[in-house]
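All the exercises in this workshop are built on plain-text protein records. Sequence and backbone structure share a record, each on its own labelled line. The structure tokens are whole numbers drawn from a learned vocabulary of backbone shapes. The record below serves as our worked example for the rest of this section.
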Amino acid sequence: MKGGFKLYATLGFLLIALFYLIYPVTKNERPLNLGLDLQGGMQVTLEVGLEALVRDLATDRDEQFDKVLRAAGANAKTSDVDVIATFVQEFEKRDANVRLSRYFRNTDEGITRKSTNAEIQTYLNTQADKAMDAAIKIVRDRVDRFGVAEPSIVKQGTRRISVELPGVANADRVRKLLRGTAQLQFHLMADQNEVATSLEKIVAFFRDGGKATPADTSKAAKADTTKKETPKTDNTKNPLLAIFTPVGGTTFGVAAQKDTAKVAAMFRRPEVRAMMPAGVVPMWAVQPSGEPGKEVYNYLAVRSKVELKGDYITNADTQFDQFTNAPEVSLTMDSEGAGIWSRLTGANVGKQVAITMDNVVYSYPVINEKIPGGRTSINGMGNVEEAKDLVTVLQSGSLPAPVTIVQERTVGPSLGAASIEAGKWSVIISFIVIGLFMMFYYRLGGVFAVIALILNVLFLFGILASFSATLTLPGIAGIVLTMGMAVDANVLVFERIREELDHGKNYKLAVHDGYAKALSAILDSNITTFLSAAILYSFGIGPIKGFAVTLMAGIATTLFTSLVVTRMFIEWYSGDGKRTVSYG
């Protein structure tokens, strides 16, 4: 490489690096994106629920199907096995002649009764892959609408999604935003008389220890049950009433937030389910009621039949109630949905309709009149942010399968600032120590190595900025490691040159042979390190990937500065043959 070309190449790279580092600053932007560990934020790992997806794909189910699917799901939670593969294996293990096509017959998808179990498994895996891709797209859309700058959303393995949200501080909002499937549905509320009758049976059941035969409530059924009266029962002897207050009407009762899971578990008992009105399921209201500090959640009786789905919603927007100024979400339906909504409201004037999403009731207003035009609203929002988040979720569409948060990590802004400070000082101290050592031990050669090291760091930051890479704390470690590797290459060259000079060669030939003999060692160490970094980049996530990117970029700049820039300085200084560079 000629001296002029080395100079122009160095100047060219320097100008490009400075452009990418300085130009964003002129626009009040950061030249480098900072990772979660440097600016704070939240990292969440989501897992797509294949058990629910398989259940939804089934066109015909029986008790055996549900039992095997639950077993496959439980097995997947305690190990790293694939739910679909386990589901098929478990079925064939229980009955070698079973044909899964009976559960998944779907002519549109080419699944007939003659389809083999292997074809069914392939079909399920294909649908799972599609669900995964759709989930990534919807999660990305939700995050973009949420307003997070420079988020990272990547597929992790086959069934997980890694989401990094820099700068996010409200973890609860993020959890609600990400894990909801956004399956909006409209149900009618249960009949009040049936709820009252059922409630008395359930209270009596737990009063009697959860074993006695339910009391005869025929008399109670004849009573006026429209009034919201609490059954007179000794709460101290009834485990249900200790944490749950019956209400009546279309509300089974109320409970404090800390007790909602216990109450739901009691209502899931098969004996209790049998006491509930046919086709009715209990659902919690999304918002609490009651005085501040004494908030309780309503456990509502909702008919399981879905009268209208959110698929017909064409637009969702935030607005404010004209009387109370409370935030609410306005919904607009397409013509088909408007027709269904008009018929539904017209035929059920005076009744309550529950607007639910992901099995939680957002609103349950009374239908006062037939509502034409396909417009309605969801009220009961806690604040404007909650209304906006619901609009974001609805506009992004429904997830094809539920996603659950299996891992999350939150980094506070103060911890991020401390990491930046620590990282900055680690780079400065490393540079000073390395620079002093090189200049003290290799004299003028060390000075050239330090200048090359400065250019090396500039080139490295320029490359990271040009590729919009994210700088993380491990990335800073990669920069420090790069500085060490950069001087290591110069040390190899300088030692070779000293050996050649000791052998009596003239200075120019010693420099030439020194670089030639050090080249293989420099390339070997850098190439093997580059390959290791590439593997880290391929399989790592988040900070690990940031470290790998920094290290690979650092290796490229190290090779250029140690083999080209430092040699250019040496040849420039000793070019006239009158001066030689001292190597200590």
In short: Residues 214-230 have pLDDT under 50 and may be disordered.
